[in-house]
Design a protein that fits this description.
Strand order of the largest sheet: 1-2
Number of strands: 2
Order of helices and strands: HHHHHEHEHHHHHHH
CATH class: Mainly Alpha
Number of domains: 1
CATH topology: ABC transporter involved in vitamin B12 uptake, BtuC
Strand content: under 5%
Structural class: mainly alpha
Radius of gyration: 21 Å
Helix content: over 70%
Shape: globular
């Protein structure tokens, strides 16, 4: 087994799959980070991905253009995020419950819409949908080993890397980022400072919808070449756990998403070892949840130590 793992982790093909598997979870984790910083939890990321995946496939099949499919998929992802915002911010409903309801509606709704339009049951096999292009990066592709890992990936993989930079700049270098954090820390204080909390939260929901839309389109137009029932496979839920591991930062999202990507790719290779398929499929999610638990325990311990030190300082005085 050790020889097998050594051969897997030393393979450029394995790390190529790791990068590919990391991209969609990285995108939705960034979306979860942005909304969490504004004080609203976007539990509807799963639904945004599902509708984006289906809409992208349908639009690309009807128009013959993957770019129109991508734009339509992103629009669908944003629409779900805005519906969450409407209920949670304007109608004062619980954001988590609304998000879960939208996810459940999306799980069955996408299958129903696919069947109603095409007659396909669970997979868009009859649609001539398009796929987003692979990109061969000049210079990078010529680097031994590394070129095989990073070059030749789908376009969305590179967009996910760019998204990390964009979200980092928005949260840390721009005025809107300070307003987002102020809204998340104290809504009343933000309102007193002239910030419209609802406007800020809608803004972050739109960003998360765009990112989830990209991830959904990648799953059906890059990771695979068609829409299948439940194609998001719980990634939206995992993203809300991964954003805790990320510590609310864009850069931290890379490491949180890599936990999922590494184990997801490993699960692909473990299928040849005769392990129960149910165990293999659960591995990426179990490891991500374990990472969430470990990070939470470490943070709680540090917070307890900080409070103890603070109280000790007061007693000394």
């Amino acid at each position: 087994m050790m020889d097998f793992l050594a051969s897997v982790f030393g393979s450029s093909n394995y790390w190529f799959i790791v990068v590919r598997s990391t991209a969609p979870i990285l995108l939705v984790t960034l979306g979860a980070v942005v909304t969490e910083q504004a004080g609203i939890k976007n539990m509807a990321l799963e639904g945004s991905m599902l509708w984006a995946a289906l809409t992208g496939v349908l639009a690309s099949a009807w128009t013959g253009s993957p770019w129109i499919g991508l734009a339509a998929g992103i629009a669908a992802g944003v629409a779900i995020a805005l519906i969450l915002g409407l209920f949670a911010l304007k109608l004062d409903a619980n954001a988590v419950l609304v998000g879960i309801a939208l996810n459940l509606l999306s799980t069955g709704g996408t299958v129903f819409v696919l069947f109603s339009i095409t007659g396909d049951k669970g997979i868009s096999s009859s649609l001539p949908s398009k796929v987003l292009p692979m990109v061969s990066v000049p210079l990078l592709r010529d680097i031994p080993w590394l070129g095989k890992v990073l070059s030749g990936q789908n376009l969305v993989v590179y967009l996910s890397a760019a998204a990390v930079v964009v979200i980092h700049v928005i949260l840390n270098k721009m005025t809107i980022g300070r307003r987002i954090r102020a809204t998340g820390e104290n809504v009343e204080a933000a309102r007193a400072a002239g910030i419209d909390p609802d406007r800020i939260k809608f803004f972050t929901l739109v960003i998360s919808g765009i990112l989830a839309g990209l991830a959904g389109c990648f799953l059906s137009m890059g990771y695979t070449s068609n829409f299948t029932s439940g194609i998001s496979a719980g990634r939206g839920y995992v993203a809300n756990a991964a954003q805790v591991v990320a510590g609310g930062t864009a850069v931290g999202s890379i490491f949180a998403a890599l936990i999922f990507g590494v184990t997801d790719a490993l699960a692909t290779f473990l299928q040849s070892r005769g392990l129960p398929p149910e165990l293999i499929q659960a591995l990426p999610y179990a490891v991500t949840i374990l990472g969430f638990v470990v990070v939470t325990l470490i943070r709680d311990k540090r917070e307890a130590a900080r409070k103890l030190k603070l109280f000790a300082g007061k007693d000394d005085r």
